[in-house]
Amino acid sequence: MRLIYVIVGIDPGIKTGYAILDLEGRLVASGCEKEASDERLVRLVSAVGVPVLVASDTSPPSHFVQKVAARLNVRVHAPAQSMTKLEKRLIGAQIYDVHARDSYAAAIKAYRRYQNRLRQIDSMQIRPQVREELKKMVICGQRIAERLDRNI
């Protein structure tokens, strides 16, 4: 099985929504869990891929989102201002469950923050495994120059 890095959007509550995007911005998994624990969410995400970022639709992010990110050992992306219902509806128009839609909108907003740099990496003539590793490094805030020197 191919290792994929993922961005995880989380909408916590009595019903916790989650959306998992690959680093191309494609939705690879989503759902809604009633009374989901952080442990359950970590297992769900880990079964799909290796998380590089957890996204929230609120500013500041909830304690639950921060806790999941800490368990996954990744950073949290939160918007400067909490996303509006309209913004989330526009981004996730094709998703009917409100919790899954809100988590998807959070993940897409996080993905868009890095989208241009990820596209630049896609245009490089390098092996796919190196490309994915570079994308992960960019999202994690690491410098990629040294890695490029070793692999081109």
Structure, described:
The chain has 152 residues and is an alpha/beta fold. The chain is globular. Strands 3-2-1-4-5 form a five-stranded mixed beta sheet. It is built from six helices and five strands; from the N terminus they run E-E-E-H-E-H-E-H-H-H-H. The longest helix is centred in the C-terminal third of the chain and has 25 residues, at 98-122. The model has no long low-confidence stretch (mean pLDDT 92). Helix 1 crosses helix 2 (63-72), helix 3 packs across helix 4 (98-122) and helix 4 (98-122) packs across helix 5 (128-139). 37% of the residues are buried. It has a single domain (5-114), classed as Nucleotidyltransferase, domain 5 (2-Layer Sandwich), CATH 3.30.420.
Brief descriptors of the model:
21% strand, five-stranded mixed beta sheet, 152 residues, Nucleotidyltransferase, domain 5, 5 strands
Structural class: alpha/beta
Distance between the termini: 25 Å
Total count of strands: 5
Helix percentage: 40-55%
| Net shape | globular
Proportion of residues in extended strands: 15-25%
Tally of structural domains: 1
Tally of individual helices: 6
Low-confidence parts: none
Summarize it.
This protein is α/β, with parallel strands linked by helices and 152 residues long. It has 6 helices and 5 strands. It has helices spanning 38-48, 63-72, 85-91, 98-122, 128-139, 145-151, and strands at residues 5-11, 15-22, 27-34, 50-55, 75-77.
